[in-house]
Amino acid sequence: MSTKIRLAKYIAHSGICSRKQASRLIDEGVVTVNNRPANHIDHVDEQDTIIVNEKEIKGAADLVYFAYHKPVGIDCKLNIDDPTSLIHHLPTFTRVYPIGRLDKDSRGLLILTNDGDFCNQLIHPDFHQPKHYLVTVNKPLDDAFCKKMAAGVPVDKHITLPCEVNKIASNQFSIVLKQGLNRQIRKMAHYCGYKVIDLYRAQFSDLTLSKLNLPENQYIQINKNDISKI
């Protein structure tokens, strides 16, 4: 007899989203368990009938991991009705979703997976993995910029965590974040008086895009340990 597990974890193991996203779906009322509205305290197994957004899910999916070289103009929200959505550029043989989104105007390395537990590990504050970006702004950087950015600045009622910032050209810098606020780098730069005109994610945890030799708008299947050893 299988062991029942919490509903959000079961949904995450099915490969359709992360555990955090599964909790949101339960809150939104689009999940049922055995023909009744789901509760967060529900514990389920493969003998139960779980419906998410009118589709039945069954058991754990085979876990897969991909690296994707996202170009500018692709939206990471998985909206089938949006022609610019990432959903139109994903592997068609399995359901995967991005870990750590890039906004539509940004480009570079995106990790795609159906491993909800691994996703939680990568983005959880206790384990948050470093992400390395190369950023070009609209004018030459002043001497105080890197120090100010690295120390932390106000973004959406938060002070950003200390981070590593280095000037690499007159109007370009590198930044390593262990935080994932919405459009964080753009807002940090704006606070310091600059506008980001190009934002490129070069590395996520242990995985470096340059070593993959991956053209824009292409993906490649990778191993979990290529991304992180956590």
Radius of gyration: 19 Å
Q: Let me know the average pLDDT.
A: 91
The H-and-E topology, N to C, reads as: EHHEEEEEEEEHEHEEEEHEEHEH
Give the terminus-to-terminus CA distance.
Answer: 30 Å
The total domain count is: 3
Count the beta strands: 17
Q: Report the sheet with the most strands, covering strand number, pairing sense and barrel closure.
A: 9 strands, mixed
CATH architectural group of the largest domain: 2-Layer Sandwich
CATH topology of the largest domain: Alpha-Beta Plaits
Determine the number of helices (DSSP H or I, runs of at least 4 residues): 7
- CATH C-level of the largest domain: Alpha Beta
Molecular shape = elongated
Can you say what the CATH homologous superfamily of the largest domain is? Pseudouridine synthase I, catalytic domain, N-terminal subdomain
* Proportion of helical residues: 10-25%
Which regions contain 5 or more consecutive residues with pLDDT less than 50? none
Structural class based on helices, strands and sheet pairing: alpha+beta
Q: What percent of residues are in strands?
A: 25-35%
